[in-house]
Structures are given as structure tokens and as C-alpha cells.
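Blackboard transcription, Thursday session:
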Amino acid sequence: MKVLIAMDGSHHADKAFDWYCENLHKEENEIFVYSHCDPPQVPATALGGLPSISAAQLDMMIKDHKHKCANLKKALTEKCKVFTGNATVLVETDDGSSGSNIVKKAQEISADLIVTGSRGLGTIRRTILGSVSDYVLHHVQVPVIVFKD
Amino acid sequence: MKVLIAVDGSEIAQKAFNYYFENFHREGNEVLVCYRSEQPDLPTIMFTGGASFPAEEIAKIMTEHNKKVNDMENQYVMACKNLKAKYKVLFETSAGRPGPGIIKLVEKECVEMIVMGTRGLGVIKRTVMGSVSNYVVHHAKVPVLICPN
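(Written on the board underneath:)
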């Protein structure tokens, strides 16, 4: 069975990963740990078409972003060492929301199951189901595990 | 791990039950199969030859309903026995809505994971997820496995 575990670097996602490993994982399952990194937020150009940040600043933003993605990939690869079978770590940056990218990736790899947390790095902690897990639940045709803690 | 599988007589619920056993069940797991059935629509007053309380009609409807629920209960008891799982089958008809009933049962029985279909016997098929699974996935404090058709 191909399992896509959606992670965003949050502590909650780590717990979802651990819980899956402890309670549901079977050795023959093929694991895909997928993290969608939002592209760096470049401030819109000011009126008149002049960019509001310098080329150097933009450069730094892109470097920071690449650095962040690399660190995340390293951390997730480390976590995947617990799997004896096949495990792939995918840290990607694409347009679109994390939810839609998770759905796209699941289709791309023909995932049989998606594991997602119920809230991640988003700031609104009052909500009982985060926007990403909500999106995934409503747009996929495969079983989804929504992890809660 | 204590797992609750919420069923309702629909094919999707049956598939969710099978899917759990085929892909995730582990020997030590205890499975609770629950059906929180809503009370069937009962006629109130019939105006044939003077206002008479339709006791006979009501008795007939309730007997049929109870028989259907009992048959389903037996079916799941047999299935659990065949799968040699440690199990409990908790079927109940109440006036309350199934969603809150399931959540209450999860808390009472200290269930650690919920399994259910995306939708059940409900008639309104416009939405991706039925009202009960929608309620449960939002209000559960434990992981929920949602299985589409």
C-alpha cells in the first residue's frame, strides 16, 4: 500500500507520523513523506512599478527559503530512518495551497492512503479542523486518516 | 489499540469495516462496532374514523426497525468472530443524532481510533462527506480514518 504522509515541519505533524508508525504501519507499505513549502512571500511592487525590495533582499529571501526546505528535508529524512522498507521524502515548493498540492501529489504517486494532521503551523488554533486537512478530506477519492491529539 | 468502527447498514460502512480489517487490524486491537440508529419516523395521529392513536402502526414500524437492527448486529458479530478479533458490538436506537452519539461513545469507551465511511444511508448526495462523518471528524479528539466508496 502506498501511503502519503503530509507533513509541514510542525510538532503536530511529527506526532501524526509517530502515531502512524506505531499503530498502523505495515512493513510492506511504501511511504512518501510530502511537505509543501509555501514559496517566499515577495511583497507586491509599489505603485509606479518600482519594486519595494532590492535585488539583494530578494536574493536573500530565496536563499533563506532554499535553506529552510533543505533543513526540513534533512529532518524528515532522519525521521524516515525508522522505516525498513521504501521511504521517499519530497519537499517541494509549488503554486497553489498546501491542500491542493497534497491532493495533486497523492494523485501523482497513486497513493492508497493519506495521513494528515488536523492542524499544523497555521495560527488559528481554535479551529477543530485545519484548512489543509479539511481541503484534503473533501477533494480526494482515497481513505484519509486525520490525526488528532 | 481500541478501534471504533461506526456503521449504519450502508454499503460504504461495510466497505470501511472490511478495509480496516484488511489493511490495519493488529492482533491486540479491540474493535467496537457501533451503530447509532435514529428512531424511525413514526406517525402521530390518524384521523380515520375519529382521532385514534395509531398504536398498531407504530408497533409494526418499531418491530420492523428492531428486526433490521438486530439482523445487522448479528451480521457484524459473525464477521468479528470469523476475523478472530477481540470485539464488542454496540447497536442502539435513540432519538439523538448519530454524530454526537458516536463522540460520546468514543469518550466513554476510551476509543483510540475511529473508522467510518464518508457517507452512509443519507439521501443528500450533493456533498462529498455526509453529515455524520463530517460531525465526527470535526469533533473527535482521536484520529479518524475516513473511507470513501
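Lecturer's comment: Strands of chain A lie at 2-6, 30-36, 87-92, 113-117, 144-147.
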